[in-house]
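Notebook p. 47: complex prediction with adenosine-5'-diphosphate.
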Amino acid sequence: MKEYEVYELLKKYGIQTPEYAIFEINQPLHFHSFPAVLKIASDKVVHKSDVGGVRVGIDSLEELEAARSEVMENLQKHGIFLDIHDRFIVEEQLSGEEFYIGGIFDAIFEEVLLFGKGGTLIEIEKDVCYIDTDANEDEILRSFKTTKISRIFPSFRGHQYRIEDVVETVRKFQKLFIKEDIAEFDVNPLLYTERGFVAVDARLKRGKKASRKCRVRSHDLFANEAVAIFGATDKKEKVGYAIAKNALQSDAKVYFVNPHLESLFGQKVYKDIDELPPIDTAVIAIPARFVIDLVEKLALRGVKNIVIISAGFKESGNKEAEEQLSILAKKYDLNIVGPNCLGIYNGERDLNLTFAKSTITPGEIGLVSQSGAVLAALIDKASAHGIGFSHIVSMGNMADFDFADAIETLAKKEHCRFINIYAEGLKDGKSFLRAIRAAHKPVAVYKAGKTKEAKKAAFSHTGNISGDYEMLVGLAYAAGAQIKRDIDELIFSAKFANFNEVLIITNAGGPGTILTDIVVEHGKKMYKLSREEMARLDAVLPPTWSHNNPVDIIGDATAERYQAALQILHRPNLLTFVLVTPQFMTDGLAIADVAAEFENTVPIFFGEESFGEVFAYCKEKNILCFNDLENVANIL
Ligand code: ADP
Ligand code: MG
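Predicted complex, structure tokens below:
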């Protein structure tokens, strides 16, 4: 499409364009107002200024004719010869701040807008944000505020910038992109003038888009009254053994199925599915070639929740079998988790249907992970720190049940207070964003694969500057998710996410200062001691104590001194660190016990050799503790 044709399309959606006139190549040029701009409009030219196809600052008719000769000469120098299909555009010259807006049809997120600072350096500056076509006003603003250019709003160097104009203009482009058959477009610059945003350049590629259909699920994945484990075995090296063993700790009914086994853990083993009592959930850990058949049989028996642990599907080239699973899921309205996954955990029943080695305890975090290995590692860490889970879903290959389904499911669960996601790649971006918006509880996302490689598309700036990582985190953040850059935060930060103020009680000044820096850098405030608290502390601490937070209670501090300080300062709404360095008289075990008496109080034993016994003790007692300062950032 030629620039002026795009202008006409923009106008239909209320987007402002400059006044312009179109001329055939040999027609005399004229225009009613100056200064004016002359541009070439030709399908042979993509970036007009690169080939000398734009002249600005034209002040008279004579200058206009001179500009035409100049432009034609420039084009010839670049080997471009004009013909009867080409046109000149003369348009009014406007002035203002240069913005940019573009849109691409992404394989994951479908229609996505990019908006930010315009000009010739956009590929280098990349001061842009991502906006979903479904984003409302709040979301548009949240996204826009991540750009540097947004800081000129509401006023900068004597100029006024109305944020409402941003929202209004973006909304018009959202509408345009959704309603028209557009594969890709960009407007650079989108000038912010006295009359608001005006598109003074526009490039657009037509193309039909196929939207995905969203599945509505009618069964709860975590309705697990009666579970059958297919492939339960007495062979310790097999996953079927670990799952069977883990599952038994629950009060849910758990049945084992294996044609070659009589009994397992003192329980009867069923020969096949036909013998089984009624179940609502099946966990499958049998060879891949038998899985499809079994899933169909389960579906015919009305079993809705099917967790496929077995590998040997898409990840090993077996695409057809995986496709088959997806078809069965739709046909029978199933929740199929996996294949190739670690399993699920249901904290409401303490039902562990995973083959994770570490113990999982009930708690408040809903954890969703695309990688089984990462999940196993996180569970292991959580177990060492006494952190529990309301639900866990190992997504595996996501033949059916995907991130959006997991978020929607966990959003409805009272026990789940945090939805924490480890994602490598999504299948359906729009439904993922919809689920985040609708969750109404904190959703945290860690995205692996921060490839710097942007998508390659020569057509527009938009294609050149949008990268997978930036797009996913940009859109998820705007939709309301917190973006985590450290994977440990998925298990640690949830617990203390709502604490704004921090108290540090320490037996050494230096580490206290380092920890203060970490606390403040992570946006938390240091609690200010009141006069009354100071006076009470004076009565129990040595006179040289710091009289400040961090409360340095001096190197010879005993467990009793930590306790005395805590009794005066402790508040349940304060995140309190008991920082301990190894001194001659330090009794780590006793201090761990003291810290455990007080809510939301986390001991940090800063050392190693001297605290070996203490770490083992904390693990055994499920006391969350740290052995260094930097890692503390994970819970802030
Ligand atoms: P290109 O195809 O090279 O992107 P543009 O139409 O964007 O061509 O014009 C190049 C530059 O000229 C713009 O980035 C802008 O700075 C300036 N320009 C173009 N049209 C106008 C206009 N109507 N008013 C003010 N400046 C303009
Ligand atoms: Mg341009």
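Notes: The longest strand covers residues 182-193. The mean pLDDT is 93.
Next step: compare against the earlier run before touching the bench.
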